[in-house]
Design a protein that fits this description.
GO molecular function: alcohol-forming very long-chain fatty acyl-CoA reductase activity
Number of domains: 2
Largest sheet: 7 strands, parallel
Radius of gyration: 20 Å
CATH architecture of the largest domain: 3-Layer(aba) Sandwich
Order of helices and strands: EHEHEEHEEHEEHEEEHEEHEHEHH
Oligomer: single chain
Pfam families: NAD_binding_4
Shape: globular
Number of strands: 15
Protein name: Male sterility domain protein
Keywords: Plasmid
Number of helices: 10
Length: about 350
């Protein structure tokens, strides 16, 4: 029997890699990581780098297992992993333009398979990384107490993550000791700017960078001035998960890892432009026109039409439970203005990073 302190899905992904480092640093080892076969070599290299950066952690601290959450029993085969104390489920398709079938297979059925695995192994704790955007286009303030509100959704990503969280909450209500974490839009590390995927707000930045510094065109939609773009850096998200997951009183709770004071869309774009050193002119337009233009220019400019839905997003996010739980931790969301320069610098220094999700 292979005993392990924790199992992480979603390694060597952006959040999974950072969370593995935090879990090992606090002494929870060995940690098993479920890795899709095509990412096994990347996972080996990343695990070695993480282990090398932590004192008193040996090479056996991370154990990689080939598998896939879209398969029953996670595709583990003979690697039964019967004795798992904690399970961190991060694996998902993070892509606003994902097609329905892929989102269904990974985000919904994959989560159901992970829940079955956790239930069969009688794990002590189940940690699920959801998203604030299970809100869909909820018109109002969405808190940790909200979920099934009759909302509509911007895309298949939101809808399938919503359905996955409904399944997790149902299992939590039935007795599975669970904690749910809902990050807002996750951007790069606030200290280094590092990211592994240029999507979401990065489309706005890359659109600016593709234009002349002396005059770059941005656009605004009728609802943009009342909308907020809620972003959080990776380090805040994984630090908060590491802190909350180590505490017994967080069992049965939902925590929104969002910015309690986010920037309105026009100010967010201005801050990006200032950090990039671009002078801008803003053109008011409608969403259908903006969608048509972005579709026609997508081959020459870094645009994703699915991003447009977040420029008039009606939902505001609040996180009272998270703020209370983190009160003595020293953790808080840094102001976007305090680290935007690092995000921009990273994009400029790493132009080869793409926008494709790990699937």
């Amino acid at each position: 029997m292979n005993r392990t302190e924790a199992l992480i899905t979603g390694f060597p992904g952006f959040l999974g890699s950072a969370l593995l480092k935090r879990v090992l640093a606090r002494g929870d080892a060995p940690v098993a990581c479920l890795v899709q076969p095509q990412y096994l070599e990347t996972a080996r290299q990343r695990a070695q780098e993480i282990i090398a950066g932590i004192d008193r952690v040996d090479g056996d601290a991370v154990r990689l297992y080939e598998g896939d959450i879209t398969e029953p029993d996670l595709g583990l085969g003979d690697e039964s992993l019967e004795d798992v104390r904690e399970l961190y489920h991060l694996a998902a398709v993070y892509d606003l333009a994902v097609d329905r079938d892929l989102a269904e297979a990974v985000n919904v059925r994959g989560t159901e398979h992970v829940l079955e695995f956790a239930d069969d192994r009688d794990v002590d704790r189940f940690h699920y990384v959801s998203t604030c955007y299970v809100s869909g286009r909820y018109d109002g303030v969405f808190t940790e107490d909200h979920l099934q509100e009759g909302q509509t959704f911007n895309n298949h990503y939101e809808e399938t993550k919503y359905r996955a969280e409904v399944a997790v909450q149902n299992r939590m209500d039935a007795g599975l000791p669970t904690t749910i974490y809902r990050p807002a839009i996750v951007v790069g590390d606030s200290q280094t700017g590092e990211t592994n995927k240029y999507d979401g707000p990065y489309y706005l930045l890359r659109l600016l960078l593709a234009q002349p510094e002396w005059l770059s065109v941005t656009f605004t939609l009728p609802g943009s001035s009342d909308a907020e773009l809620n972003v959080v850096p990776r380090d805040y998200v994984v630090d908060a998960i590491a802190y909350l997951s180590a505490r017994e009183e967080t069992v049965g709770e939902v925590y929104q890892l969002c910015d309690p004071t986010p920037l309105p869309i026009p100010r967010f774009v201005d801050v990006l432009a200032e950090a990039a050193g671009h002078r801008t002119v803003t053109l008011p337009t409608t969403k259908p026109i903006a969608r048509t233009v972005s579709s026609r220019l997508s081959s020459s400019l870094p645009l994703e039409s699915a991003t447009l839905d977040y420029l008039d997003h009606p939902t505001r996010y609040a996180c009272p439970k998270t703020l209370q739980a983190l009160e003595r931790s020293g953790l808080e969301v840094p102001a976007f203005e305090s680290y935007v320069d690092r995000l921009v610098a990273y994009v400029l220094e790493n132009p080869a990073v793409g926008d494709e999700p790990m699937v």
